[in-house]
């Protein structure tokens, strides 16, 4: 559409002929092309430290095709790769070669934290607690230590394992857990009154 003052408003993609008539009744025409706005596809939620890739349709602008409104929350590369920096919301803008643009909001979720003892002896247990609402616990080596759905770690054998906690936003944190072997005692187990016996503890 066009106003009496010559202000053109783009309505839909296509071509329109604009006609101007002066006070003498003379006319001139101009062809105006309206380009469709691009669209952005891809996931819009990620965790701090993780990445996701957004895709803009059509040919991207030569420079600054992708821009983040809050680089301290999320950055975006020239290829649309978004990296979560800190918890919050960032608006990502994509501009195509026709200089038409569109925006999308990306939410960056904070990583959870885990508290509790991460060093224990064979047969001992340790209660780990995850921040926020959890969706699961797992151990990378169940033969070293197992972990229940409530975060209760049970030491099985000496070694190291990684306990992973995932919260309801899908963000995870990994806690290294070390299981120590129990000591042993050597040197006998019987003696007489007034005699002595030397015991030796391992480790």
Describe the fold and architecture.
This protein has 203 residues and is mainly β. The chain is built from no helices and 22 strands. A four-stranded mixed sheet has the order 4-11-10-7, with no helix packed on it. The chain has a four-stranded mixed sheet with strand order 13-20-19-16, with no helix packed on it.
Which spans have pLDDT < 50 for at least 5 consecutive residues?
Answer: none
**Main sheet?**
4 strands, mixed
Query: What is the structural class?
Result: mainly beta
Quick one: overall form?
rod-shaped
> How are strands sequenced across the largest beta sheet?
4-11-10-7
* Helix content estimate: under 10%
Give the C-alpha Rg: 33 Å
Mean pLDDT metric:
96
From N to C, what is the helix and strand string? EEEEEEEEEEEEEEEEEEEEEE
Number of strands: 22
Helix count from the secondary structure assignment: 0
- Report the β-strand fraction as a percent range: over 45%
Separation of termini?
A: 87 Å
């Amino acid at each position: 559409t066009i106003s009496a003052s010559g202000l053109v408003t783009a309505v839909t993609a296509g071509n329109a002929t604009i006609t101007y008539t002066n006070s003498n009744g003379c006319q001139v025409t101009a062809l105006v092309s309206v380009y469709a706005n691009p669209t952005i596809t891809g996931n819009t939620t990620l965790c701090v430290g993780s990445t996701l890739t957004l895709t803009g349709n059509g040919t991207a602008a030569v420079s600054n095709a992708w821009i983040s409104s809050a680089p301290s929350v999320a950055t975006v590369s020239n290829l649309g790769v978004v990296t979560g920096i800190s918890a919050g919301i960032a608006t990502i803008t994509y501009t195509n070669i026709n200089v038409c643009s569109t925006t999308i909001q990306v939410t960056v979720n904070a990583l959870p934290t885990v508290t509790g003892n991460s060093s224990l002896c064979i047969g001992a247990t340790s209660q780990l607690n995850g921040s926020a609402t959890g969706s699961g616990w797992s151990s990378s080596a169940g033969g070293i230590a197992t972990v229940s759905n409530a975060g209760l770690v049970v030491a099985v054998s000496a070694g190291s394992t990684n306990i992973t906690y995932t919260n309801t936003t899908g963000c995870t944190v990994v806690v290294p857990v070390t299981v120590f072997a129990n000591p042993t005692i050597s040197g006998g187990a019987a003696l007489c009154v007034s005699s002595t016996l030397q015991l030796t503890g391992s480790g």
